[in-house]
């Protein structure tokens, strides 16, 4: 991500400075947990997407800087809540906030970050954009509830899986790129094209995340390989085995999902490899990457557009 971020390096640093500024609170625990998770780093993919989109359409204004911080606050809040729900212990190579501070503080600081995001949104004084972000945040929350409802269910369909990842991951990517276009007073057609770009980018990104849970390396990924299996998440590689595998392979995967059994990881990895399920998942991700690339047709050539194209390719071609 370093070479991609370099295109908007000054703006990216301004976003980080605004995030730190907006974490100020007279409640010490808010600042402690907020700084802990923000300073853990990560790709900062979503705010970078907003900045690159703004640059590809002209220039990044102070309003784009504020909007990018909104996107990151919403994303960070979802991470805090997700880790509590999933009982996760490792993120970005170090203990999760809930492991370090406890579940209750993590949930409440997540709430603080959500509300801080909407305070910033109000300062932009753009009601249609505020409405879009309210709808986006609601969709994310609904996606998380849907994922929780499907956990441990080996009868989950690919359509249900797509519904989950579209809501819980892809809509925030889409909001980042569409919102940047709106702040440039882009017309409805342009906003829709950039929404389509972000949505397909987010879907491809999540699909690769899901396959890396069965072929990735914990040190590289910054999380424990097999976490999804232990949480009973019926992700696309597993759904593909259940649809195409033989009886023994289907039984292994079905029992692992239903039992939320991370100890079955070895047998499940063998099944997803033997059934070509990782290759299937990657091919589906590449299809959405191609849809994302197509949505950028017609944008003005330049460093920002080149970075967006590279970002789309790297959403699939990565190991973390």
UniProtKB/TrEMBL annotation:
Biological process according to GO: isoprenoid biosynthetic process
Cofactor(s) this protein cannot do without: Mg(2+)
Reactions accelerated catalytically: 5 isopentenyl diphosphate + (2E,6E)-farnesyl diphosphate = all-trans-octaprenyl diphosphate + 5 diphosphate
Top EC class of this enzyme: transferase
Record-linked Pfam families: polyprenyl_synt
Keywords associated with the record: Magnesium, Metal-binding, Transferase
MF-aspect GO terms: all-trans-octaprenyl-diphosphate synthase activity; metal ion binding
Enzyme Commission numbers on file: 2.5.1.90
Family of this protein: Belongs to the FPP/GGPP synthase family.
Function: Supplies octaprenyl diphosphate, the precursor for the side chain of the isoprenoid quinones ubiquinone and menaquinone.
Protein name: Octaprenyl diphosphate synthase
């Amino acid at each position: 991500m370093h070479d991609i971020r370099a295109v908007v390096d000054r703006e990216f640093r301004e976003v980080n400075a605004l995030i730190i500024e907006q974490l100020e609170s007279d409640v010490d625990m808010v600042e402690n947990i907020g700084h802990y998770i923000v300073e853990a780093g990560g790709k900062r993919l979503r705010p970078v997407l907003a900045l690159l989109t703004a640059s590809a359409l002209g220039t990044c204004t102070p309003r784009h800087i504020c909007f990018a911080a909104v996107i990151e606050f919403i994303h960070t809040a979802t991470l805090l809540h997700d880790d509590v729900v999933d009982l996760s212990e490792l993120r970005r190579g170090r203990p999760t906030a809930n492991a370090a501070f406890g579940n209750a503080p993590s949930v409440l600081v997540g709430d603080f970050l959500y509300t801080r995001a909407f305070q910033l949104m109000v300062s932009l004084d753009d009601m249609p954009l505020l409405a879009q972000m309210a709808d986006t945040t609601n969709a994310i929350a609904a996606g998380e509830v849907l994922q929780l409802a499907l956990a441990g269910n080996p009868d989950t369909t690919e359509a249900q899986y797509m519904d989950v990842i579209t809501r819980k991951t892809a809509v925030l990517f889409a909001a980042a790129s569409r919102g940047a276009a709106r702040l440039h007073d882009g017309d409805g057609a342009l906003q829709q094209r950039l929404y389509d770009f972000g949505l397909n980018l987010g879907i491809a990104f999540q699909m690769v995340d899901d396959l890396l849970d069965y072929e990735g390396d914990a040190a590289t990924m910054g999380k424990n390989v097999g976490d999804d299996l232990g949480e009973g998440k019926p992700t696309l590689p597993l759904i593909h085995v259940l649809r195409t595998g033989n009886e023994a392979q289907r039984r292994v995967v079905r029992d692992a999902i239903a039992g939320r059994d991370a100890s079955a990881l070895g047998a499940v990895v063998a099944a997803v490899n033997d059934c070509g399920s990782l290759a299937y998942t990657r091919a589906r991700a590449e299809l959405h990457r191609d849809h994302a690339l197509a949505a950028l047709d017609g944008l003005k050539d330049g460093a920002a557009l080149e970075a967006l194209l590279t970002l789309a390719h790297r959403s699939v071609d990565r190991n973390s």
